[in-house]
Write a structure and sequence with these properties.
The chain is α/β, with parallel strands linked by helices and 203 residues long. The protein contains 6 helices and 10 strands; from the N terminus they run E-H-E-H-E-H-E-H-E-E-E-H-E-E-E-H. The protein starts with a strand and ends with a helix.
């Protein structure tokens, strides 16, 4: 099971996530309490081992900005959390993770419109696109026509529910941000507990 820890804001937090077993770390370049500058993300990125994939999160950003940040920071993936079109996604040279907000059964049909590497199925937006700590009805994923090897599950996951979520949805990976935080900061014990639960073998 792949695990992505999103909302990395310092090298210290990045190292804690990697030590806990994270496969992907996410930098948020959109409006968020976890937003990071391109310059600081590039500094952190230099210290990240190659086997850990670096993801940049964007919301309705211009292609030029996405391309520049991707190049400067050395992103392995671009995660698009806004209303980006399939054509927009096709113009990005690094692999794309397209976030789809899951509210109704018909939301799964949006996946068929995109030719991307992964889909991140997330809760409907609150104040920000993603990172709001709410789950959605996982049964909606049963209607997804794409293979589960293309699905990352997000939205309100934490160490207490991630194992059940994985059993129900069978994604290739899970994504967490607020679910491994205490008082708005990444919590080493919560990250470790989350990754342990996510990667434990099922019955």
């Amino acid at each position: 099971m792949l695990v992505k820890i999103c909302g990395i804001t310092s090298l210290e937090v990045a190292n804690l996530a990697i030590d806990a077993g994270a496969d992907f770390i996410g930098f948020v370049f959109a409006e968020s309490k976890r937003k990071i500058s391109m310059e600081y993300a590039e500094e952190i990125s230099r210290e990240i081992p190659k086997h850990v994939k670096k993801v940049g999160v964007f919301v309705n950003e211009s292609l030029d900005v996405v391309r520049k940040i991707s190049t400067v920071v050395g992103l392995d993936y671009v995660q698009l959390h806004g209303d980006e079109s399939p054509t927009y996604c096709d113009q990005i040279s690094v692999p794309v993770i397209k976030a789809i907000q899951m509210k109704h059964k018909h939301d799964v049909t949006k996946l068929d419109q995109y030719n991307v590497d992964y889909f991140l199925l997330d809760s409907p937006p609150g104040k920000y696109r993603g990172g709001n700590g709410d789950t959605f009805d996982w049964s909606l994923v049963k209607h997804v026509s794409k293979g589960s090897d293309q699905i990352f599950l997000a939205g309100g996951l934490h160490s207490g529910n991630v194992y059940q979520a994985i059993k129900e949805v069978q994604p290739i990976g899970v994504d967490v941000s607020s679910g491994v935080e205490s008082n708005g900061k990444k919590d080493p014990e919560k990250m470790l507990a989350f990754i342990r639960e996510a990667k434990k073998k099922g019955d």
